[in-house]
Amino acid sequence: MYKFKNSLIAFGGLSLLIGAIALVTPRPTQGQGGDPVGPPKPVEVVNTPTMNAQQSGAWNVALTGTPIVKIDPTANNVTFAPRGTSLVFDSGLVNYPSGTGPTLIGPIDISSYSQIRVGVSHLGPSDIDVAVRTALVTAPPVTIENSFRLEEFSVEDNVGSIARNGPTVTRLYEVAGTTLFVYLFFRDGPHDVRVAVFGS
Asked: What is the b/e burial string over 153-181, where b = at least 16 CB atoms within 10 angstroms of the residue's CB?
């Protein structure tokens, strides 16, 4: 009986010892997201990239292919300076004696301009007639034969009493081709005529 009692006391002490060890031993917990703890899982590291690039000296940028560059003045606040007016041609004051036949002035290269103004000044006893023609080609030969009519008008003599166009006439043409011709047709002379062409 005494032996059994001692065994029971020993068994109880051992149970208390195992219970104490179980209380102080940490237990595994669940991982983040509710995943049970088990074999090791892969770890994903997310790194937000940052860029701190510095360039010294001149930039060297190359484009391949055929880039398309567009400027939208409404979206990019781009201001375009208006192109000024240039004197394209000035004949100076030229005297044409009585009996002078039709006279061709040109070809005058106007391919760089979107607007052309032709001015004709005239001093003489009778009117002259002016034909303004244009061609759409710049390669030789650029001749009056491969041109077409823009306008025909008369320039009044400086001594007449009927005011029509006056002794100085100007005309404005938009997108007038690439080459300009001015044809002068004289009546009874002599005549002093100046032809000027402006482009913008």
From this structure: ebbbbeeeeeeeeebebeeebeebbbbbb
Global pTM value: 0.55
Q: What's the CA gap between 109 and 164, in Å, rounded? A: 30
pLDDT tens for the chain, 200 residues long, are 555 555 656 556 656 656 656 555 566 555 555 556 666 667 666 666 655 556 666 666 666 766 665 666 566 655 555 567 899 999 999 999 999 999 999 889 999 999 999 999 988 888 899 999 988 765 566 666 677 888 999 998 876 555 555 688 999 999 888 889 999 999 888 999 999 999 99
Q: Which residues contact 150 (CB under 8 A, 6 or more apart)?
A: 132, 133, 134, 173, 176
Q: Which two tokens stand for residue 20?
A: 């104490």
- Whole-angstrom Cα Rg for the chain: 49
- Which of the 8 DSSP states describes residue 36? P
